[in-house]
Amino acid sequence: MSVGIVLVSHSAKLAEGLAELAAQMAPDVTILPAGGLSDGSIGTDYDEVVAATQRADSGDGVVLLYDLGSAQMTAELAVESLADPSAAVVADGPLVEGAIAAAVAAQSGKDRKAVAEAAAAAGMPEDLEPAEPAAGGGDEIELELRNEVGLHARPAAVLVRALSAFDAEVTVRLGDQEADGHSVLALMSLGARLGDRIRVRARGPQAPAALDKAKELVDGNFGE
Questions:
Q1: Domain residue spans in the chain?
Q2: Mind naming one GO cellular-component term on file for this protein (predicted)?
Q3: What is the pLDDT of residues 196-215, one digit of tens each?
Q4: Quick one: which of 59, 2, 10, 11 has its CA closest to 31?
Q5: Is 3 in contact with 106 (CB distance < 8 Å)?
Q6: CB 144 within 8 A of CB 183
Q7: Which tops the pLDDT comparison, 187 or 65?
Q8: How many CA atoms lie within 13 A of 160 on its CB side?
Q9: DSSP 3-state of 45
Q10: Superfamily covering domain 126-223
Q11: Do the Cβ atoms of 99 and 34 come closer than 8 Å?
């Protein structure tokens, strides 16, 4: 089981498209769109949000994200109406970036609180920082991206999910920029493409194993 995710939007097409995108990065997570009104027009449908929240809950709870202010109100009212309101939480974060971050966190087995925090923190600029010279006490390898899309969307999510299994702090560097290896959005912000050489640095008890896994994924084109 994993935390479910509900995307509350004024637009059915927006919610459905985002759910489809997020599902590519979190195949084992229930991600349900709840957008638009029942007649197909723009708006939010309270009954649909309640139903989606109930369907998304497999036992580990649900995180709801929203696009605009009135969608937030609808989502909060839906949560309050549940038999157990504590089973769901409305995350205050950007809809698109938050959905991606929440999906990856849920896929990695994080609990409801951690998934909501990932959504709320999504897109923060401090995730991407100027790279510093490699310091002692860590291991580092250089890898060449040979997959067609580089470190974008699904490959970034695959890397983050894999690295979450290791007790290690991991960063990925491209040129003069460095990103947290546990943040999909930060990795995507690097803009690493086919043919780019990235440097992966790890520190901690399982640093060598984390680097071995990163090399395995890059060499295997992230399973593409």
A1: 4-121, 126-223
A2: membrane
A3: 999 999 999 999 999 999 99
A4: 2
A5: yes
A6: no
A7: 65
A8: 31
A9: coil
A10: HPr-like (3.30.1340.10)
A11: no
Number of neighbouring beta carbons within 10 Å of residue 216: 11
- Amino acid symbol at 143: L
Distances (CA, A) of 71 to 21, 66, 88, 94, 208: 20, 6, 16, 13, 45
pLDDT value at residue 176? 92
Return all residues near 200 (Cβ < 8 A) that are at least 6 apart: 140, 141, 142, 143, 170, 171, 172, 173, 181, 211, 214, 215
Catalytic residue among 5, 8, 10, 57: 10
Distance CA 183, CA 62 (A): 21
Mean pLDDT of 143-171: 91
| CB neighbourhood size of 38 (10 A) | 10
Predicted pLDDT at 131: 55
For residues 167 and 202, give the distance between their C-alpha atoms in angstroms, rounded to a whole number: 10
φ/ψ (deg, to 5) at 181: -70, -5
The confidence score (pLDDT) of residue 124 equals 62
| pLDDT 10s digits, 99-138 | 999 999 999 899 999 999 999 988 565 444 555 555 455 7
How far apart, in whole angstroms, are the C-alpha atoms of residue 158 and residue 11? Answer: 29
CA–CA gap between residue 168 and residue 173 (Å, rounded) = 16
Give percent above pLDDT 90 in the chain. Answer: 79
Tell me if the domain spanning 4-121 has CATH number 3.40.50.720.
Answer: no
The pTM of the full predicted model, rounded to 2 decimals, is 0.76
